[in-house]
Amino acid sequence: METLDTVPDEDFLRLDHQICFSLHAATRAFNGVYREALKELGLTYPQYLVMLVLWEHGELPVKGIGERLRLDSGTLSPLLKRLEAGGYVERRRSPEDERSVTVRPTSEGTALKEKARGVPRRIAAATGLDLADIRDLRERLDALAVRLDGVDPDELNVCR
Amino acid sequence: METLDTVPDEDFLRLDHQICFSLHAATRAFNGVYREALKELGLTYPQYLVMLVLWEHGELPVKGIGERLRLDSGTLSPLLKRLEAGGYVERRRSPEDERSVTVRPTSEGTALKEKARGVPRRIAAATGLDLADIRDLRERLDALAVRLDGVDPDELNVCR
DNA sequence: CGCGATTAAGTTGTGCACAACTGAATAGTG
DNA sequence: CACTATTCAGTTGTGCACAACTTAATCGCG
Question: Residues of A with CB below 8 A from B32's CB?
Answer without folding.
Answer: 148-149
